[in-house]
Specification:
It holds the Pfam family DUF6090. InterPro entries: DUF6090 (IPR045749). Keywords: Membrane, Transmembrane, Transmembrane helix. The protein is mainly α and 241 residues long. The chain has one domain. 82% of the residues lie in helices and 0% in strands. It has seven helices and no strands. The protein is rod-shaped.
Amino acid sequence: MPLFTKSFKIKSLNNKRFGRYLLYALGEIILVVTGILIALQINNHNEENKKKNLLNGILQNVSYDLQQDTLFIGTAIKYYDARSKVALKILNNEYDAESVKKCILCGNLVSTYLPLTINDKGYHQLKNFYEESKGRDSLTVDIVQFYTAYEPLLSEFGDQVKNFSLENIREWRDTKPWFSEIMANKGHPDFFEYLLSQDYKNKVAYFNIIACNNYMNMLKQYKIQATEALKRIDKRLEETD
């Protein structure tokens, strides 16, 4: 066999072997890449499930907080509604020297308040999730905005009522001789006379504005929005079960 022909056959054989090796190598690369992509897909799926489970757990906490809040706020609304009715009677001069003695709420109308604190553990968890998550879930956004709007307002309005009540107690303590007897649940003629005075009516008028109008209306709006949020949370949790 001529040397040239023999060399050509060897070269052709080597090319075929290299081609087979190249195809094998490409096949291995494709398998590796495919494996990596599948692993990434599984990992992403697992991460999404973790986020979904975490969000559902947080929503359950928010739901519990809102349930407790709406129950207590319902009580607070009744509390201030009853005082609003008495306040209007005082301002309309519907009490006289005898009937005011029988009015249980007249004497402590402007010197008592109902402490109220919003349960916000679930909200802060949701807020952190909202800030750390790149996604923007509409329900999460709405709930965070709900708390952001109402929590400071309820605190501010509640503090107004609290501070006004405490100011009245301090004023009576320092200026009214009957204060100690009233604190001991003893009636005093000067106290009942004071309840019919213009000074007391002015305090009642201001109390009616900040507590029975501003604060109570804010509580009502909060309860409405919180109830709607609860419905949306329950629907979301049912869909993901």
